[in-house]
Amino acid sequence: MSPVRKAQITSVVAPAAIGPYSQAIRAGGFVYLSGQVPLDPLTGALVPGGVPEQTQRVLDNLSAVLQAAGLSLSRVVKTTVYMTDLGKFAEMNAVYAKAFRDPAPARATVQVSALPKGAQVEIEAVAWSGG
Fold first, then answer.
1. Parallel, antiparallel, or unpaired: how do β-strands 106-111 and 76-83 relate?
2. Could you report the per-residue pLDDT of 50-74, keeping only the tens digit for each?
3. Could you give the CA distance from residue 66 to residue 126 in angstroms, rounded to a whole number?
4. pLDDT at 131 over 80
5. Rounded to an integer, what distance in angstroms lies between the CA atom of residue 95 and that of residue 112?
């Protein structure tokens, strides 16, 4: 069995990884994007505002990493959304719905007790990079 070929993807216009992980990895026709939290890529600080503003920043950060891979949000096939309060799901979903056209990616949304840097929203994604 041959080893999986994988390549690291890094964007300078998205926040740098805040731990021992890659922003994204290309492997087997897919790009696997690590969870993005709503950090301003210039300052490294959490963006001001609530769930809508944080969701938009997360999507912008994901877009920047995808762009470094030569892709866009239109190639995303699966996301996982992590929220600290599912009571604010509608606020996140309103912003999320503007970013993804039909057919929207498959998605799971879960509530967690905390996210890095005190964020309210984190999204990870898988994008199709093949044909």
1. parallel
2. 999 999 999 999 999 999 999 999 9
3. 10
4. no
5. 20
Gap between the Cα atoms of 102 and 74, Å rounded: 9
Task: Give the whole-angstrom CA distance, residue 38 versus residue 117.
Answer: 9
Whether domain 6-128 has CATH 3.40.630.30: no
Q: Domain map of the chain by residue range?
A: 6-128
Confidence check: pLDDT of 9 > 80: yes
pLDDT band at residue 101, thresholds of 50, 70 and 90?
Answer: confident
Query: Could you tell me the two tokens for 114?
Result: 């905390």
What HEC string does the chain produce?
CCCCCEEEECCCCCCCCCCCCCCEEEECCEEEEEEECCECCCCCCECCCCHHHHHHHHHHHHHHHHHHCCCCHHHEEEEEEEECCHHHHHHHHHHHHHHCCCCCCEEEEEECCCCHHHCCEEEEEEEECCC
* pTM (2 d.p.): 0.95
